[in-house]
Amino acid sequence: MRDRVTLPEPFTTVQRHQVEWTNYLTPQALIDLVASRSYCITSPAQVRTKTLDRVRQLLATHPALANSNGLALPYVTVCVRATLA
């Protein structure tokens, strides 16, 4: 990930702030999260069903996820603010 942000004129004084956080999800919450994404919503029904079935399969068979009550989903949010000269 790039640490430095540069913008052309007329922008000056670029500030960057990064926030790292973790969302803790139940298995069903992960399925709901995937189902809420636009790529899933706009997929044909057959593709959407296959995608969600694959998530369920991953949750049931992955050694770190099978028989667990949930998972940690890490995020990084990068904010950039620039002054207009």
UniProtKB/TrEMBL annotation:
One of its GO terms (molecular function) is methyltransferase activity. Keywords: Methyltransferase, Transferase. GO terms for biological process: methylation. It comes from the Bacteria. This is Methyltransferase domain protein.
